Amino acid sequence: MMNYAAPLWLPGGHLQTIWPAVYGHRPVPPLPAYRRERWRTPDDDFIDVDRLQGSPGQPLLVLFHGLEGSSASHYAQAFADFARQRNFAFAVPHFRGCSGELNRGPRAYHSGDFEEIGWILARLRREHQGPLLAVGVSLGGNALLRWAEEMGEQAARFVTALASVSAPLDLAASGQAIGRGFNRLVYTRRFLSTMKPRALQKLAQYPGLFKADALLAARDLYEFDNVFTAPLHGFKNTDDYWARASAKPRLQQIRIPALVLNACNDPFVPAQSLPHAMPGDWVTLWQPAQGGHVGFPKGAPPGHIRALPQAVGGWLADHVGRLPAQEKPNG
After folding, report:
1. Are residues 266 and 235 in the same domain?
2. Which domain holds residue 225?
3. Is the pLDDT at 306 greater than 50, yes or no?
4. How many domains does the chain have?
C-alpha cells in the first residue's frame, strides 16, 4: 500500500493536483534528453514515441500519458527520472496529435483506446528483449486497463505488470465531477482551451467531420465528447462512449499483475466511484486519503514529485523478480 501523507503546506485535493502540474517539473533536473521516433500506424497515420535508452537486460518502462499530456508532462518527467536512476529503458508513446504535430487521420484518441495501446505494446515487445512494464496516467491509465481487460490471459505475452495512476475508472462519474463548480471553472476550461483548437484543426483537414458551431458551443467535456470524441471513434454519443470505455466494470477480467492507484481526494475521480473490493486476484487497489489527481507531492517548499514514481515504479519493478526463471532477461 502506498503510505502517502501530503505536506501541510499543500492541503486538499486541488492544491495537491495543481502544484505538481504547474511547478512539478522543476525539482527533476535535468530534463530528459529523449530520442524521438515516428511510427506508422496500422491505418497509415503516425504517432511519435519519445525514448530513453537503458542498460542491456533491464526492463523497459512504458508510460501512456493523460488527456492533453505528453512526454513533457510533469509526471512523465518524474517517471523518466525514476527509469534513469534504475537504468531502465523508458518510452512515452504519444496519443494521436499530442506530440506537437497534428496527426493525419480522421481520428484523435479517447479513454478506451485499447486497440491503440495494443499495437504499441506489441511493437515494443518485439523490439525489447527484457521485461516490459507499463504505467498509464489518468486517461492513459483507463485505456491501459481496458487493454488488459480485453486481452485477458494473452496480456502476459506482452507485459510483465502494469499500473494505472488516477484513472477515471467510471467515466460518467468523473465527467459529472469535472463539469461542476470549481472543477468546471478551472480544469474543464483548461482542457477545452487546447482541445477545441485541435479539434478545429482536424475539421480543417476533414471538412464536414462535425459541426463547428456545436463544438464551439460546448461548455464541458460531456458536450465536447458528444460532438467530437464519441462520433469520431465509433460511439453513438457521450453516454455510449463513457459506458463502453470505462474500465471499472471489467477489472475482474485482468490476468496480469495490475496496480490501480487513486487518491480519495482526487477532484476528478469521486471516491464513491472507485472499486471498494479487490476485483480478483490480479488487481491491487491503492486508495490513499490524499494525493489529488496525479499529484502526491512531498517535502518542504518547494517540494518534489518523486513519491509517485518511486511507489508505483517500485511496485512494478518488484514483479520483475517474480518472473519464472525461463522468462527472465539475459544479462
Report:
1. no
2. 171-245
3. yes
4. 2
Sorted by sequence, the CB contacts under 8 Å of residue 253 that are 6+ apart come out as: 148, 149, 150, 152
- Look up 266 and say whether it is catalytic: yes
Specify the pLDDT at position 302: 86
Q: Are residues 252 and 214 in the same domain?
A: no
Identify the three-state secondary structure at position 51. Answer: strand
Which of 133, 136, 145 lies closest to 169, judged by CA? 145
Tens of pLDDT, residue by residue over 59-71, are 999 999 999 999 9
Q: What percent of the chain has pLDDT over 70?
A: 95
Give the span between the Cα atoms of 6 and 13, in whole angstroms.
10
Query: Which CATH number goes with the domain that contains 312?
Result: 3.40.50.1820
Q: Which residues pair with 161 in a beta bridge?
A: 133
pLDDT in tens, 220-243: 999 999 999 999 999 999 999 999
Q: What 3-state class would DSSP assign to 34? A: coil
- Which of the following is catalytic: 71, 73, 99, 138? 138
Alpha carbons 132 and 76: distance in angstroms, whole number:
17
- CA 147 → CA 74, 104, 152, 283, distances in Å? 24, 24, 9, 14
Same-domain check for residues 267 and 296: yes
Residue 46 counted as domain residue: yes
Residue 237 shares a structural domain with residue 264: no
pLDDT tens digits for range 99-118? 999 999 999 999 999 999 99
Q: Are residues 86 and 145 in the same domain?
A: yes
DSSP letters for 286-326: E--S--TTTT--BSSTT-B--HHHHHHHHHHHHTGGGS-GG
255 and 284 inside one domain: yes
**152 and 21: one domain?**
yes
The pLDDT confidence band at residue 77, using thresholds 50, 70 and 90, is very high
Residues 37 and 127 in one domain: yes
Cα dist. 4→63, 74, 263, 292 in Å?
22, 19, 10, 11
Domain end residue (candidates: 245, 268, 293)? 245
Question: Of residues 73, 111, 266, 319, which has the active-site annotation?
Answer: 266
